[in-house]
């Protein structure tokens, strides 16, 4: 950095403290059911989850005068509070220099296909309010001296719409939003897991009516079974970090897509994810994007005997090509099959994948420059591809070693690992390629409404993204739809003020939950939770990961179905009270894994090819990556078909018929150029803009 940064500033941006507790809700009501007492809460709106998206929804609701309860598994667990990268990115319309064009931004958001045009436009336009609100609450987004927010280019971003507060942008978002929630006196039911959705009515009249909960601090009954009754439920429980073994999510991130499947909600784009390099979840899960690789550390592997391998030298033809592609992983971070071609940057990920399959550990060493390709020149800053050299030159980062270059470009990136007792100025960092994001999720409209009236989804649990997403678009989408769902719920409550109702389904739903708990707690025949976790995660990482052999998908799907049949037959074994919620969430994850595999199987049967972050390998594939040592025929892959970009795959679970798969064309958007002030003002004033 041009200006040296004092230690206390580095600390403020990396060692971010969050509130330890939030005010609990008052409890005035109990229900007797099958001889146990169940606490009952009643609120006009409930948000499940306290990540950046859920907090935004809660704050926006309360600011509009809606009494909202936040229910969360643990304050402040989750991806927003515990994940990041070298510069964790927020992607919003560009507010510097000549500004931006929302239509173009929307096109860029949906550029990878399978994204609704109306959602993309809403995310583009809404990004201004989303980030202005965060700035107003004190999020330290960097500015120049004229007040324009500093920007840079990131993955799938030709324009340069990215900005960042440093490695911990999302944790800082959680901080400012939770401080605002405290100011607004929003109650939080902490240590509480959403077990199932409570619905009322039937057929076309079916709607959300509340949530069945397990609250570890409630001792009214042995399981902590509780219920919240509300006509408006916002699911904001994040992504399925426990779905894959190779995962850079923090531990214990389950999300609740399984809960959504059980409730019969429509899910979409479950085939779409992001995978990329990061440090392992068994140590400290963190993305190794941006400057971590732009400084070109030495990438090598070791075997069980400690023998070192300069394995990337088997893939790239020259040292310059090798080093330049390590650099490019900085802003081409997610794996993409087509980037394995022509010695592109995703060949790095594929090489790492093959290396780890040999049982080797892969390392990043910031003390050494890349080692040469046999027979070629040694690494030299004067011999780099033009774009790489220009970037380093522009940032004054032409120091002799990677760690010196990192100190110059981003000292926060070093500081961050130090806090987790990894000093990258002294020792190398083990890493691999991991599952990092679920692009799909609950299918929603432009107000975050799911297929179940009264139930909304925001943040990573919502399937708002397409096949690809620009880096930072996830955090933006959570903020935009946090606002959108709040505005919609508020409009509905203005039309029909809240009057608490007790649905006639309540007793039956609670009895079902109680029966599940009675059956599985201390169940000697049940599947052990650790076995359940490893069976699901190994299957997903080995047969449905970023390198996926299409011939293996049907067997993986059969095995996932059989696992769910076994769970139905034998149950699971929850052998201690603190494992109650884990038991439920692992079972829901088993259902989700079947749904993902069913969607993938459908996609491949329709002739689907490699897209987004998944390389679909098959003998008949039309393209194959090439390495210095020859064509990698084992990784020959199917090419994507353009027609698949125009539709979304939907999955709905039916207990009788299993996973029901369908497709729908993308939603389009009217010509927004025909929207004028006087013509459209009335619809705003009367609330007609909210369906
Ligand atoms: C390493 C890494 C780096 C990333 N970098 C970026 C980036 O640079 N830019 C970007 O845009 N995105 C990035 N992402 C993705 C982004 O961080 C997440 O998509 C986003 O933070 C999700 O926010 P959320 O509020 O939806 O969920 P979370 O922050 O995960 O919050 C979920 C909340 O729900 C609670 N919860 C979960 N299940 C239940 C349940 N059943 N009952 C009750 N509560 C529950 C949890 O305790 C938590 O409070 C990154 C992700 C990772 C893993």
Question: Care to describe what's here?
Answer:
With 691 residues, the chain is α/β, with parallel strands linked by helices. The protein folds into 3 domains: 7-272 and 439-495, FAD/NAD(P)-binding domain, CATH 3.50.50; 284-436, no CATH class; 507-649, Methane Monooxygenase Hydroxylase, Chain G, domain 1 (Up-down Bundle), CATH 1.20.58. Helices cover 34% and strands 18% of the residues. The chain contains 19 helices and 28 strands. The strands form 8 sheets. It has a 6-stranded antiparallel beta sheet with strand order 14-13-18-17-15-16. A 5-stranded mixed beta sheet has the order 1-2-10-9-8. The protein has a 5-stranded parallel beta sheet with strand order 7-4-3-11-20, with helices on one face. Strand 25 and strand 26 form a beta hairpin. Helix 16 packs parallel to helix 18. The longest helix has 26 residues, at 580-605. The chain is globular and about 80 Å long. It starts with 6 loop residues before the first helix and ends in a 5-residue tail after the last helix. The model has no long low-confidence stretch (mean pLDDT 96). The structure holds flavin-adenine dinucleotide. Flavin-adenine dinucleotide is lined by residues 48-54, 71-74, 77-80, 83-85, 88-89, 170, 193-194, 236-239, 248-249, 253-256, 278, 285-287, 436-437, 459-460, 471-475, 478.
């Amino acid at each position: 950095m041009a200006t040296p940064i004092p230690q206390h500033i580095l600390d403020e941006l990396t060692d971010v403290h969050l509130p330890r507790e939030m005010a609990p809700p008052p409890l005035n009501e109990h229900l007797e059911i099958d001889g146990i007492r169940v606490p009952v809460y009643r609120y006009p709106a409930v948000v499940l989850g306290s990540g950046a998206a859920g907090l935004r929804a809660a704050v926006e609701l309360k600011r509009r005068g809606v009494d909202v309860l936040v229910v969360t598994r643990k304050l402040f667990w989750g991806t927003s509070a515990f994940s990041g990268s070298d510069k964790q990115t927020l992607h919003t319309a560009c507010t510097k220099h000549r500004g931006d064009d929302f239509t173009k931004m929307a096109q860029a958001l949906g550029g990878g296909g399978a994204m609704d045009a109306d959602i993309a436009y809403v995310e583009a336009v809404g990004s201004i309010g989303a980030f202005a609100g965060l700035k107003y609450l004190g999020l330290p987004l960097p500015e120049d001296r004229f007040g324009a927010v500093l920007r840079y280019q990131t993955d799938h971003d030709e324009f340069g719409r990215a900005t960042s507060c440093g490695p911990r942008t999302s944790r800082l978002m959680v901080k400012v939003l939770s401080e605002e929630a405290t100011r607004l006196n929003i109650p939080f039911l902490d240590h509480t897991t959403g077990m199932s959705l409570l619905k009322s009515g039937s057929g076309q009249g079916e709607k959300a009516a509340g949530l069945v909960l397990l609250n570890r601090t409630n001792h009214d009954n042995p399981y902590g079974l509780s219920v919240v009754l509300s006509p408006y439920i916002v699911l904001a429980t994040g992504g399925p970090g426990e779905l894959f073994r190779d995962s850079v999510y923090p531990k214990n991130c389950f999300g609740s897509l399984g809960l959504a499947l059980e409730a019969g909600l429509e899910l979409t784009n479950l085939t779409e994810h992001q995978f990329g390099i990061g440090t392992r979840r068994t140590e400290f899960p963190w993305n190794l994007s941006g400057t971590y690789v732009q400084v070109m550390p030495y990438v090598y592997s070791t075997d069980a005997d400690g023998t070192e391998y300069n394995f990337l030298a088997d893939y790239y033809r020259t040292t310059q090509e090798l080093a330049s592609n390590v650099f490019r992983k900085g802003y081409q971070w997610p794996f993409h099959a087509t980037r394995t071609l022509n010695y592109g940057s995703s060949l790095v990920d594929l090489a790492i994948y093959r290396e780890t399959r040999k049982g080797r550990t892969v390392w990043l060493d910031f003390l050494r420059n890349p080692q040469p390709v046999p027979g070629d020149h040694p690494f030299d800053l004067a011999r780099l591809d033009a774009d790489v050299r220009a970037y380093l030159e522009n940032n004054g980062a032409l120091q002799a070693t990677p760690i010196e270059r990192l100190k110059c470009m981003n000292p926060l990136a070093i500081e961050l690992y130090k806090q987790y007792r990894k000093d990258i100025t002294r020792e190398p960092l083990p890493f691999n390629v991991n599952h990092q994001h679920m692009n799909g999720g609950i299918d929603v409209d432009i107000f975050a409404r799911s297929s179940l009236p009264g139930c909304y989804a925001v943040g990573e649990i919502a399937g708002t993204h397409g096949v690809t997403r620009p880096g930072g678009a996830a955090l933006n989408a959570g903020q935009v739809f946090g606002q959108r769902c709040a505005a919609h719920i508020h409009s509905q409550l203005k039309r029909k003020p809240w009057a608490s109702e007790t649905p006639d389904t309540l007793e039956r739903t609670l009895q079902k939950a109680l029966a599940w708990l009675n059956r599985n707690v201390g169940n000697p025949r049940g599947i052990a939770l650790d076995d359940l976790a490893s069976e699901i995660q190994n299957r997903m990482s080995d047969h449905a990961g970023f390198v996926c052999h299409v011939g293996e998908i049907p067997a993986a799907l059969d095995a996932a179905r059989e696992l769910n049949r076994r769970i139905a037959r034998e149950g699971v074994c929850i052998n201690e009270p603190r494992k109650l919620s884990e038991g439920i969430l692992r079972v829901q994850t088993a259902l989700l894994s079947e749904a993902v595999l069913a969607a993938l199987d459908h996609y491949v049967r329709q002739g689907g090819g490699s897209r987004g972050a998944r390389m679909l390998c098959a003998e008949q594939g039309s393209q194959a990556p090439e390495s210095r040592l020859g064509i990698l025929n084992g990784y020959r892959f199917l090419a994507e078909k353009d027609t698949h970009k125009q539709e979304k795959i939907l999955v709905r679970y039916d207990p009788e018929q299993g996973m029901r798969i369908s497709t729908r064309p993308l939603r389009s958007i009217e010509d927004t150029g025909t929207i004028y002030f006087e013509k459209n003002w009335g619809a705003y004033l009367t609330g007609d803009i909210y369906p």
